[in-house]
Amino acid sequence: MTDHTDTATANGSPGAPLWLLAELTYRCPLQCSYCSNPLDFAAVKQELTTDEWIDVLTQARAMGAVQLGFSGGEPLVRKDLETLVAEARRLGFYTNLITSALGLDEARIHALRDAGLDHIQISLQASDPDVAAAVAGSAKAHAKKLAMARAVKEAGYPMVLNVVLHRHNIDQLDTIIALCDDLGADAVELANCQLYGWAHLNRAGLLPSQAQLEAAEATTNRWRQRLAERDRDMRLLFVVPDYYADRPKACMGGWGSIFMTVAPDGAVLPCHSARMLPMDFPNAREHPLQEIWYDSAAFNRYRGDDWMQEPCRSCDERHKDVGGCRCQAYMLTGDPAATDPVCDLSPDHHLIEAARREAADDSRSAQALTLRNARESQVFCRT
Length: 383
Ligand code: SF4
Ligand code: SF4
Prior knowledge:
alpha/beta; globular; Elp3/MiaA/NifB-like_rSAM; iron-sulfur
């Protein structure tokens, strides 16, 4: 392994990873049709053991990572979650549990708090139980989520709710925000569905229309005003979908720049979607994280700007948005080094416009979307 202090990428040495996303498992009791997990997740069988995860956490912390998200799948499926949280606390991480709340109960909330968990983020599907059931593939999940959101708040955690918005729930935004207010949320992430994994498979049935999106933004602004008048401190974060932007976001702050994801089987990725790309990612079972982060071909592949093609290569904005998302470029054009077609300077931007038209013509109900489950995943494991 090279000493990273002497290792220069084409545009200078990368800094340390600040964020570690630990995807503990792809197992999950829900089946959300917008899930960003890989389509072939069922092929991943050998999850890292408790000791292997502790080794990953220890290495990442030694490299300088300070923020740790436990995610999945559903991280509560892992019986060793409390052990991992305690170890993360001992190492000095700020820890966040990203959960559906399925698998949570009062005893576990207290055990996680005793282990030192800093933060819990619960996802809600909708305010209407029928829509929530259709999108999550579970009739019981909605009531459980509401009960656990209340319990998390009572246990003294700052309460962040995450609502993935799509065409089947975005028109209910007024009642969704009212529900979050009633639950006592401190912050609500209204995150328009990012179209990766299962969400990309269901893209035409999930993408809202421009009119829906504008109405949702207006509703959010009305609520911000109302909350301010009541002196109610509930932050509303509205994340616009890429497909209605004219510039891409700087994906993960830049490839291999600050985020490192470790997948359930130990694959180390620059983001949770990247394993869809046609390239090999190193595994934490076989290589130290430091070597992977600084020296691997995968992590150096899209660092800096030498890899960029036109129009990004000569664009003044290339250091601001890093040419967008490599996964989105690959999914839409077949070329992971292409300019993200979200950008209206991209020669492939017409693909985004075509996706919007395709979505406008799609009349599927929420019930008709493909659910994310092991049976459906098997189809992609064979291809
Ligand atoms: S999005 Fe839904 S199905 Fe996917 S991991 Fe989260 S809760 Fe499970
Ligand atoms: S051409 Fe590339 S660098 Fe320029 S704005 Fe578009 S995505 Fe960003």
